[in-house]
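To: structure desk
From: M.T.
Subject: fold request, one chain
Message: Could you run this one when you get a chance? Sequence is below, nothing fancy, just the single chain.
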Amino acid sequence: MQETFIVIVVAVAFATIYLIPLLMHALFCANKRIVKCPETGSMAEIEMEASRADEASRADMPRMRVKNCTVWSGSGGCGQSCIR
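Reply: Done. Structure tokens follow.
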């Protein structure tokens, strides 16, 4: 009985220490990247479309798109060659 309790405590501790931070990163940060913009030559933080990034990680789909970029001014949009 005591061994079962110890195994459960260790499993919960492992999940708390290792798995929860990984899940938080995957949910909130995985789609942001810092790249060098080929058009301006400056560094930019880009945010990928979450659904497409998820699909591309599961299948062989090279068609990812940038959702947001710090280099884009109010007009937005570019050739998105930074992700190719």
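Reply (cont.): The chain has two domains: 1-30, 31-84. Let me know if you need anything else for the meeting.
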